[in-house]
DNA sequence: ACCTGAACACCGTTCAAGT
DNA sequence: ACCTGAACACCGTTCAAGT
């Protein structure tokens, strides 16, 4: 979020963008340094000039990912001040990944791979969840939708359920299933309507 | 489910059991043929006597996994005929994976890896979801919990949400978070109580 | 400042050969 | 019937060397 808008992207930026797309489709384990280098028209060894290791690159990717997510959610709040409307639109941020070649949230994928993640990557993955849950809690509290005590629990539940819907829709390569699942959550009362 | 109870497990059975545990922790990509062979005290090349490829082994693992799941759910219905009680206990089947060294559902992990899965494995992963959704739908219809029209949607929603809760709990290595999330689903009305 | 070729130990897989 | 050693092309990574 603190990039120079009028400057062309640096080599490191281009690596981060390409690596993010690969990791959303194939995970940390499936992020292949040689294939990534091929995408960028350089050799695998060159990547190590910009990032000291695959762990270092993946941590930078995950950090950028949650920072972008945090900025998107903040912008959401500004353009859509009504809490109920904010919550109604929240699942759209997850829908966008599926629209992009059936990809999923980088951090959902990496959460599955938790055992194999370097600690530096784990910390950034956890940050993504925290940012999302904290945002949801603020909106729920602002809307006085449940007791203040229950706002944290409800926020976690919405995050987990939307993540699960995204994953299930990927397994069917069917974005309409995602929409159906979100509608079911609303009908059941999980997402205050 | 059609194994000979009084016979000692065959080499193939032992491979399947060990491979299942690895795949629940590391996924299809993280299922390392040499490490698996080491676990079993044989050489990697020997695995190819029993299974023609890693894809073939993973498909057999996923098939056994949903067959066992189907059998467990059927046994559930027999010992617990009350639909509401069945639904209340359903999340326990997912809790057990977390109890086993923070592992998750084999098929949730493989769903994340969908792009990299051989077609034979994909088919078995889809079967797991279908078995679970079909069981949930039967129970929901038997309990007359929602309109018959909505039973399918509700069954899918419960499966997606419980899967998401399992994944989120793994990312925190905190099984009590799983319990909290399931309670929140009940409080919100997603799981009929 | 940025990139590369060659090398290392590690992967899935094959296959001829062993018991 | 079941297992193995050696070999293949492929991974992440290093490093000396190039521009």
TrEMBL record, chains A, B:
It comes from the Bacteria. Keywords: DNA-binding, Transcription, Transcription regulation. The keyword Oxidoreductase does not apply. Residues 32-51 bind DNA. Residues 9-69 form the HTH tetR-type domain. One of its GO terms (molecular function) is DNA binding. InterPro entries: Homeodomain-like_sf, HTH_TetR, Tet_transcr_reg_TetR-rel_C_sf. It holds the Pfam family TetR_N. PANTHER family: HTH-TYPE TRANSCRIPTIONAL REGULATOR YJDC, TRANSCRIPTIONAL REGULATORY PROTEIN. This is Transcriptional regulator, TetR family.
């Amino acid at each position: 979020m603190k990039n120079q808008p009028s400057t062309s992207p640096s080599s490191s930026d281009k690596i981060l963008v390409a690596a993010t797309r690969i990791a959303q489709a194939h995970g940390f384990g499936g992020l292949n340094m040689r294939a990534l280098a091929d995408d960028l028209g350089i050799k695998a060894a060159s990547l190590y000039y910009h990032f000291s290791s695959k762990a270092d690159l993946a941590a930078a990717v995950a950090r950028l990912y949650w920072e972008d997510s945090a900025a998107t959610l903040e912008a959401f709040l500004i353009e859509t001040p009504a809490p109920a409307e904010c919550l109604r639109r929240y699942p759209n941020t997850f829908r966008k990944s599926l629209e992009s070649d059936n990809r999923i949230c980088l951090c959902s994928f990496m959460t599955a791979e938790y055992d194999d993640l370097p600690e530096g990557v784990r910390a950034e993955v956890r940050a993504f969840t925290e940012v999302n849950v904290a945002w949801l809690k603020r909106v729920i509290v602002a809307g006085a939708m449940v007791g203040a005590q229950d706002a944290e629990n409800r926020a976690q539940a919405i995050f987990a359920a939307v993540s699960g819907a995204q994953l299930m829709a990927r397994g069917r390569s069917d974005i309409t299933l995602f929409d159906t699942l979100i509608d079911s959550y609303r009908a059941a009362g999980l997402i205050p309507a």
